[in-house]
Amino acid sequence: MTCLIVDDNAMARTALRHLIADIDYITLKGECENAISTIRFLRDTAVDLILLDVEMPNMSGLELIKTLHQQKPLIIFVTSKRDYAVEAFDLQVVDYLVKPITLPRLLTAVERAWEIFQSRNEPPAQPVSSMDEHLFFRSNNVLVRVQWSDILFFQALGDYVVLTTAEKRYTLYMTMKMIEQRLPTRYFLRTHRSYIVAIGKIDNIEDNSIQIGRNIIPISDTYRARVMAQLNLL
Fold this sequence. Notes:
Number of helices: 7
Distance between the termini: 33 Å
Strand content: 25-35%
CATH topology of the largest domain: Rossmann fold
CATH architecture of the largest domain: 3-Layer(aba) Sandwich
Largest sheet: 5 strands, parallel
Shape: elongated
Helix content: 25-40%
Radius of gyration: 21 Å
Number of domains: 2
Order of helices and strands: EHEHEHEHEHEEEEEHEEEEEH
Structural class: alpha/beta
CATH class of the largest domain: Alpha Beta
Number of strands: 15
């Protein structure tokens, strides 16, 4: 996910740059010191996320957002004032951070942006034929076949994914995006950045979680509407 820092304070930009350097899935594409230079930058360079100050000379961060229409990036406000939070969230920003910014707080905000970014950019899973009811994957240098009907859920853990069946757990060195593209949507459902569940194995749904046997699977805000729609829930 690409990122742009916009702040008229050079020290604030430097602090954010150092924090972002510790987040491996964020690529900093540039820095701007005001809204006008930001508009010029975005004409030539698309970014996925803007870390945006509110109070800047000539045009505020709030006013800048209103000028962005097509391909609008995700926005996280980073400001020294709490006064603009209500107006900011009315503009559907991802988060509102008050300076000084700590890495844990920034990570929370960026994780929200990452989930939204993934949901925007992941292609729909392709359906499979009735003759293709299984998955082949490599585990410990051996190709293993697993029937769709045996799978309970997938969980992303760092650089790998764990496939859980009723009998066994397998480690897959694949991304969730790669796995989701191979799964039939009539059988499987993405509930969270880190989870894909087998619809037929769901025992119950309560609040923001799904139960499969003894396993509790979270439903994130990003995927909740999609879960409700796919399960035909009101």
